[in-house]
Amino acid sequence: MNKHTRLADAYHSAQIEGPGYLLKPLAGDDFTLYRQLYTLPSIQKWIGVAFSDRQVERAFAQLSSKVQPFWFDNMHWVIYDKVSEDAIGITALVGQSAVEVGTLLLPHAQNKGVAYEVMSNTINYAFTQANKEKVFAYFWYKHTASFRLVKKLGFYIDQVTLHKQRPLPSFYCEKINKNRVSV
């Protein structure tokens, strides 16, 4: 089996299921959700990036071209509510041995425990299925919900260094895979 076939198989079998949510790999027909997440002011105020429609189209086209062929370096899932079967957000792991984790949820799905369940399952996938060394994130230092979330997920949070090169001044946090198998 060649590398391309292995990556395609990994991509197609990368569905993650939790008690309330199902994560399916991002596909070309997920553009409408992607556009919503990257243009809604109520979401963008927390991450500091607001895209025009043209920028969203370009970003999605670029992302779509990378997801399947480079799955283990660029994992993106659409989050589906198991009850309503609606797409409610996107979560991602991006990087090689250390991966940045991020989750964007539509407003009606926020503050309901979705991010905790989804990120718990995504981090578990990073450590057990993709054998990643660590998971890290940046979050706006004034976003108390993100602070509580990463603390609850067991991340180490650097509250001393304020990373000003990010779209919003941000704290860095990380979680190490203590069970990583050396390759």
UniProtKB/TrEMBL annotation:
<protein>
    <submittedName>
        <fullName>GNAT family N-acetyltransferase</fullName>
    </submittedName>
</protein>
<dbReference type="GO" id="GO:0016747">
    <property type="term" value="F:acyltransferase activity, transferring groups other than amino-acyl groups"/>
</dbReference>
<feature type="domain" description="N-acetyltransferase">
    <location>
        <begin position="22"/>
        <end position="155"/>
    </location>
</feature>
<dbReference type="InterPro" id="IPR051531">
    <property type="entry name" value="N-acetyltransferase"/>
</dbReference>
<dbReference type="InterPro" id="IPR000182">
    <property type="entry name" value="GNAT_dom"/>
</dbReference>
<dbReference type="Pfam" id="PF13302">
    <property type="entry name" value="Acetyltransf_3"/>
</dbReference>
<dbReference type="InterPro" id="IPR016181">
    <property type="entry name" value="Acyl_CoA_acyltransferase"/>
</dbReference>
